[in-house]
Amino acid sequence: MRVALQPGFILHRRPYRDTSLLVEIFTQEWGRLTLVARGARGPRSRWRGLLQPFKPLLLSWAGKGGLGNLSGAEETTPAPPIPTDRLLCGFYVNELLLRLIQPHDPCSVGLFETYRNTLQALACSPFVEPVLRIYEKHLLTELGYGLLLDSEAVSNQAIIAQGLYRYLLDQGPLPMVRERPGPGIPVSGRALLALHHEALDEPALWREIKRLTRAALDLRLQGQVLKTRTLLRAEHQRRLNR
Amino acid sequence: MQSPLLTRLQDALRCLPGIGPKSAQRMALHLLQRDRGGAERLVETLRAALAGIGHCRLCRNLSETEICSVCGNPARDRTLLCIIETPADAWAVEQATSYRGLYFVLMGHLSPLDGIGPETLGLDQLEVRLGAGEIREIILATNPTVEGEATAHYVADLARDHGIRATRIAHGVPLGGELEYIDGGTLSHAFSGRREW
User: Fold this and answer.
1) Between residues 119 and 158 of chain B, which touch chain A (CB distance below 8 Å)?
2) CATH of A84-240, one of 3.40.50.720, 1.20.1440.120, 1.20.120.140, 3.10.20.30
3) With contact defined as beta carbons under 8 Å apart, do A140 and A108 qualify?
4) What pTM did the predictor assign?
């Protein structure tokens, strides 16, 4: 089977044999795949500098099942590059896809759009926190585990900004009763609504939103540790100690 | 029908890059049939190299002594430190440029997805060195790949903490190249990094 000029991105690549690369790709119609790029590390490779993460590409490959062979890669309209201080966040975005989506899993076009928009936002938007949170929210939705953000779990009542809630990951937000705190992640109504409307301009809310999306993702990761998260945390710690 | 030792030798030779079963067989037969003396020398040298070559305590490059010849050379500029990914890169810079400072060899680049973090690259060691106060400028000569850039950024950040100037090597059109055949990324980089002429 041959696929020609499919819009896609490289998520990760690692050396394979002497001069080849194993590339993990994420494409619009075929989702995640692993391909062999023969000779890609050789000194005269036609793909020099092209098979890099975060670059929008048109990919062609051949092969059925198992490992396909990359037969072509072209750059589409170049996207604005991600600033170097945000590259780690970019790796985080990629790692989430690599861990939560298996090769050949059917993927919606929406997820590809989400990924593309996230890269663009990482390159352009003034703050990274909102970009990552919105990506995590969309990722969960596309995986079929979307968060319930605008109404309560049992009563179906609309979330109010002044309210305090505890979020049960398998149900949704429940009103917090001061005398009986109960299980779940404490979260304010304002934070829930902000994430729902994707209007995360208030830095004060970022922390609790992060706690929520992180817990929801951790449930899906089933104990897998995100290596990029460990590194980002260490980096953050170093900044604080400065 | 092949002797088991010969099979083992062939398998062992295949650990070399670019050597498949056919080449391994050719090498093994050559050493045994035509050049037993050469094989002897190979064994001795290999053993000596394995035992004698380690890493320089200062720059992490391959070295026979605790401090390599570059780090130990009093004529080199000790205020300049070039950050580089592999010994081969250091060798290339040494051959091609008139750089007279010191090196720090990372032996890789940051690649969190493969579990390669700052400790694996000896960046804690680098930080101690930056803190010692001898270095005035670091030259970031990691590869212009996404991982190389991320590494350069990380190291530059460390340098900033210690008030040390960080510079990045220029990226652009190769000498003698033709613009028509240069990939878009390089060309746009070359344009944004243009200089007064």
Assistant:
1) 144-146, 149-150, 152-154
2) 1.20.1440.120
3) no
4) 0.88
